[in-house]
Amino acid sequence: MNLDDFKYDLPKELIAQDPIEKRDESKLLVIDKKTGELSHHVFKDIIDYLEAGDTLVLNETKVIPARLIGNLMDANSLGRVCEVFLVRRISDKRWECLVRPGKKLKVGAKVSFGDGKLICTVKEILLDGNRIVDFDYDGIFEEILDSLGEMPLPPYITHKLKDKDRYQTVYAKNEGSVAAPTAGLHFTKELLNMIEKKGVNIAYVTLHVSLGTFRPVKVDKIEDHKMHKEWYFIPRDVADKVNTSKLNGKKVICVGTTSIRSIESAAYFDEKKGCHLLKECEGETDIFIYPGYKYKLADSLVTNFHLPGSTLIMLVSAFSSREIVMNAYKEAIKEKYRFYSFGDACFFH
After folding, report:
1. How wide is the angle at C-alpha 183 spanned by C-alphas 28 and 157, nearest 5°?
2. Which residue range forms the structural domain that includes residue 118?
3. 179 vs 290: CA distance, rounded Å
4. Is residue 247 located within the same domain as residue 342?
5. How many independent structural domains does the chain possess?
6. Has residue 156 been placed in a domain?
7. Cβ–Cβ contacts within 10 Å for residue 293, how many?
8. CA 95, CA 244: separation in Å to the nearest integer?
């Protein structure tokens, strides 16, 4: 398959710049994944498609203020403004980062943030240009980062975010992502309570979203694209809930591409039961899902509208079909749905 197969034209005015006032009142385009039949709803109507015994899988990762602006501590360029963007934690004080300006941040370069509250030293330059850096500080890193860092909104959002909690899900818990699992932004605590009262199991996985998920595909033949690794965790109780639903003929509904990548990465075939089940798991995944992939556990998918040519639109196309997805996007554009991170949602069932 070629990259051009997953591209479409989007009017700029449909790129959502701000979250709507009430999370669960965004639009919801409901799509039959087999027939392509479409219907228009409000997001909180999602509860009508969930039944007792189903399991709703959500990613409870929390976005960190990953964008740091500091000054170069080099005698020749003293005070020069630099940006260090946290991509992936390697160990306690070591991170993989994106940096600007790259030419100035060679091995050994030091950058000071907040008048020396936080200092990073470049230790290694990776093949893709990313840096491995070590941080020096006194105190708790997360607290320092919270005071100095900025929320890493995607580049297509040009408005300043008034309330940084709106780029977090209401159930965000485990810090580590550099981007929000945006399908989850539509849920309120009240809606989740109503879903649980209906007898639906709520299951929380963690996948720390890295920039690799959003990195553009630069090869024409999509099969040649390589995904970056992301850390994920499937607790025992989540595996139990998903497996009970599967064995009882109930549905597993994934909220977002990160949730679906998590459970598909940890799926295994149980010879005795004769079906795929989910195992308790912790590790890294670089799973790349595109048309031709056969889903093992996920029955339904809640997701936002994704960028043209992205790995995310390929994942959604594998869940249904490229033709059905592209037709749904065409309908969404016609009906002026809001796109991307702060945009509306679609539900494939």
Report:
1. 100
2. 67-148
3. 21
4. yes
5. 2
6. no
7. 15
8. 38
